[in-house]
TrEMBL record, chains A, B:
GO terms for biological process: tRNA wobble adenosine to inosine editing. It catalyses: adenosine(34) in tRNA + H2O + H(+) = inosine(34) in tRNA + NH4(+). InterPro entries: APOBEC/CMP_deaminase_Zn-bd (IPR016192), CMP_dCMP_dom (IPR002125), Cytidine_deaminase-like (IPR016193), MafB19-deam (IPR058535), tRNA_aden_deaminase (IPR028883). It comes from the Bacteria. Binds 1 zinc ion per subunit. It comes from Pontiella desulfatans. This is tRNA-specific adenosine deaminase.
Length: 180, 180
């Protein structure tokens, strides 16, 4: 993957939150490098990282292998308990319905994301899964942390994808002219 | 687990659908035997079972280890593709929001469930995740297959749980009287 357009914004406003979101962004970059839609997630409990993952649906051939689900499984194994009371997730994109449901089930205290997904977001945008009175638990939310950086990773990935697809099409056309 | 109240209804109306739902019910019974909330799921593609699982959240200490998610992962590994186009899931309970999201992501053709969950159901009851125009895919639904049997497994589990809790409380009281 090229991702040449992408550069992290300077750490002017350093805080623990931006530190953990940078970590999630590094995971998203790793996903892009593996040809995966770039989403990264980090789970923090009492200042310690207990889960860190990126989207691996293509690599694992598993549609449930989103960054958030993988990070939740990792974190529960780290603490030896399926309840992640008090933990905070940092994720580059608003969670989808599956991941929002997983966040509620895990009893996550809070989720902080970068870019919002107004069309398919399962946290607050399309479905309000994280704060539904009838579910067992509500998850606090914070949207828009390092939003520009999170968008840049995603847009860079899809720009590269379009460029590669165009190049491949042109190459096939050239190959056809040579052999035709 | 006792589950003595529970007995499968006779196979008067035998069909492929009831056969697969019975298989899902056996998975639910296995969950109950392991002290898990009894939910079972089976995935069928072209008449062949490609995934079969029961809830294992307590055993695996993982809140994402619902029957549906485990069965989806199993099925994708069986076919070597994260897309389960054309597959049908049989599950004893209406999927929760997490599992409904996973069903959409997996491109499942249809899901058939036994008991509906009007309070927390993520398929059609509380959230209509399986048939939302803005998501990439819609999943066909059929509710109420072998509903009485599916309810009986669930109710038997919680009756047993209440009984055991009561017995333990009485035993602790007796122990207290003896040592007090």
């Amino acid at each position: 993957m090229r991702n040449t357009q992408y550069e992290l914004s300077p750490m002017d406003n350093f805080s623990e939150d931006t530190l953990f979101m940078r970590m999630a962004l590094r995971e998203a970059e790793q996903a892009a490098a593996e040809g995966e839609v770039p989403c990264g997630a980090v789970i923090v409990l009492d200042g310690e990282v207990i889960g860190k993952a990126h989207n691996q649906t293509e690599t694992l051939k598993d549609p449930t292998a989103h960054a958030e689900v993988l990070a939740i499984t990792q974190a529960t194994q780290a603490v030896g308990n399926w309840r992640l009371n008090g933990a905070v997730m940092y994720v580059t994109k608003e969670p989808c319905p599956m991941c929002a449901g997983a966040l509620v089930l895990s009893r996550m205290k809070k989720v902080v994301w970068g870019m919002t997904d107004p069309i398919r977001g399962g946290a607050v945008s399309k479905f309000n899964i994280l704060n539904e009175a009838d579910l067992n638990h509500a998850v606090e939310t914070e949207a828009g942390l390092m939003e520009a950086d999170c968008k840049a990773v995603m847009q860079g990935f899809f720009q590269d994808l379009r460029l590669r697809t165009k190049e491949q099409r042109q190459q096939r056309k050239l190959d056809g002219e040579e052999t035709g």
